[in-house]
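Exercise 7. Given the encoded structure of a 236-residue chain, write a plausible sequence.
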């Protein structure tokens, strides 16, 4: 066997080709890249601090890294198990879950950094969100808490999927969490009633379509409204 002298440049080229192949073949990878460009441009437009920019870059790298690993796992599974196998599906699902977790974490980090710039009132001096409290932080974290609890309860109950069926209704929990945050914000009673009406309509649609029972929708509504109200009460 002849020795090779391909060296570091060859390995570097292979790494670039692997990244480009993932971008060409994976739709979600292209979406992540476009979002990364948008986040970087937003940071440059609002002139975020060096520390904030570093955190944004870490979030972007984390998501892209998770998507690359997910793509590699999918290719490997397709190679060793071309036919359907339950364990092959689990490998793909877990790898995709890693991407989802990284994306949620990066989105939360981006919100904490950019919210103070993007949602600052007109004419008000923009200050680093790291030195204060970002607007709407309790509403956002209430929503994340509700979603996490819905996933845990569905996993414990062993019924339905994360987006369809099972106890409790995730759509109802999400809708009533948002409606509760709106009602607790200084927006006026009309807006609060409209938000509540929209949440009720979403819950009714889940029952009408036969996806959830009335009990599952009520459980989701109580979970979303109760958790959000409690967090606002103690930390608002």
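Solution.
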């Amino acid at each position: 066997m002849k020795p090779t002298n391909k060296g570091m440049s060859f390995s570097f080229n292979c790494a670039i080709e692997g990244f480009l192949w993932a971008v060409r073949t994976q739709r979600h990878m292209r979406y992540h890249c476009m979002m990364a460009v948008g986040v970087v441009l937003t940071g440059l437009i609002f002139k975020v601090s060096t520390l904030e920019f570093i955190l944004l870059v870490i979030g972007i790298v984390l998501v892209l890294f998770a998507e690359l690993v997910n793509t590699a796992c999918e290719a490997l599974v397709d190679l060793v198990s071309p036919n359907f196998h339950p364990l092959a599906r689990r490998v793909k699902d877990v790898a995709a879950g890693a991407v989802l977790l990284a994306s949620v974490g990066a989105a939360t980090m981006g919100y904490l950094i950019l919210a103070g710039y993007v949602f600052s009132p007109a004419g008000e001096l923009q200050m680093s969100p790291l030195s204060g409290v970002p607007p709407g932080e309790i509403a956002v974290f209430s929503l994340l808490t509700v979603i996490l609890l819905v996933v845990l309860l569905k996993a414990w109950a062993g019924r339905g999927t994360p987006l369809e069926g099972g106890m409790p209704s995730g759509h109802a929990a999400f809708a009533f969490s948002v409606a509760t945050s709106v009602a607790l914000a200084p927006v006026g009673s009309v807006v609060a009633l409209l938000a509540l009406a929209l949440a009720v309509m979403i819950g009714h649609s889940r029952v009408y379509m036969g996806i959830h029972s009335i009990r599952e929708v009520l459980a989701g509504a109580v979970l979303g409204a109760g958790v959000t109200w409690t967090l606002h009460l103690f930390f608002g």
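Remark. The chain has two domains: 11-135, 136-236. Students should compare their own answers with the one above.
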